[in-house]
Amino acid sequence: MRIGIFGGTGPAGTSLGARLASIGHVVVLGSRSKYRAMESRDRLLVVNPELADRLESGDNAAAAECELVVIATPWDSAATTAQDHAEALAGKIVVSMANALVRVGHEFQPLVPPRGSVAAHVQAAVPRCRVVAAFHHLPAKELGNLGSPIDSDVLICGDDPAAVAQVSELVAAIPGCRPLDAGELSNATAIEAFTAVLLQLNGRYRTRAGMKITGIA
Amino acid sequence: MRIGIFGGTGPAGTSLGARLASIGHVVVLGSRSKYRAMESRDRLLVVNPELADRLESGDNAAAAECELVVIATPWDSAATTAQDHAEALAGKIVVSMANALVRVGHEFQPLVPPRGSVAAHVQAAVPRCRVVAAFHHLPAKELGNLGSPIDSDVLICGDDPAAVAQVSELVAAIPGCRPLDAGELSNATAIEAFTAVLLQLNGRYRTRAGMKITGIA
């Protein structure tokens, strides 16, 4: 599949882009500046030269032309960036992976966006898209470390079951990732907020925490 | 330790009471009605007669006399029940395990209480107590099934590190439970909300989902 990433130059977007390219997709790392996207691509290829044929770079408009688009921008520009490319995105699956968090002292706290989640905000901004929330809890560094599988479940939610199923297939192809259907997009509120707890644990235990659900065979 | 449970007649309170008694504590199952508490105790002893010496019943006032008190009432009476017994609770550790959830159609959605969490609401109601949030994600049935260990981490947060440490010790003694220090009480917001996702998964996968954090040795 051809996958575009808005904000493909940040830690989450870069790592996810590399990982998706490593399992056979063609990934367009997008950015507000196509030159920054080129830089990100160059940096990725130093470590993972085998991805050269499957990693492209461009501005966000180029990323928006892909079949499926992931929004990996900072949380407060996720909806506006999607809206800027509403025409190109219409009818497509748009994956929201951002978490609205703020650092207060030495703690991370979730911010609850007015519509309950970043994903719901994005869905409202591009109502003709099928927004799916996923990838919130994967530590970026593990995601980008292509030599190792990821030891984490990926909670996926959205209001279009076919879109959730397609993103689940994408996730299932990543070694060590298990997709779990977490229901409607309204569940993104709790999924996004929970990332604050994982970051909290990262600091407390000097680790990069992931999450697994027990009781599901 | 002598542990009191407010709302010790509901599924969560009954199961936790049985489990804590099974690891050697004396548990007072409290309720608004001491007769309902007697009934709950009787029911527990049919299945677990070996707990007879360590399970007591009483009204919530009797539970409030214990060294440590767990609030297992429905979420919307957690703070008022604590406040009713503020004098007896002063200076003690009060464990909040309630989640504010609402069923919307076939989905569970988190409600965000005005102070961000049930635990923060309780802390505001009894400012002289040391409130610790814990036990939100344990499936009640597994908790009460004393023959089997529990396969789940327990995220614990609170503003008094000594109180968090003491609750962590309590949790660590439950077979299969790992206590994790999730920081200040403000993190209860995301921890409580996340329970909605677990209930969602229970319905979707016909299971009783728990949660484990990866990346912490």
Description of the molecule:
The structure is a homodimer of 217-residue chains. By secondary structure, chain A is an alpha/beta fold. Chain A is 41% helix and 24% strand. The first copy, chain A, has 9 helices and 11 strands. In chain A, the strands form 2 sheets. Chain A has an 8-stranded mixed beta sheet with strand order 3-2-1-4-5-8-9-10, with helices on both faces. A two-stranded antiparallel ribbon of chain A has the order 6-7. In chain A, helix 1 links the parallel strand 1 (2-6) and strand 2. In chain A, helix 4 runs parallel beside helix 6 (118-125). The longest helix of chain A is centred in the C-terminal third of the chain and has 18 residues, at 188-205. Chain A is globular, with a radius of gyration of 16 Å. The two termini of chain A are 29 Å apart. Chains A and B meet through strand 7, helix 9 and strand 11 of A and strand 7, helix 9 and strand 11 of B.
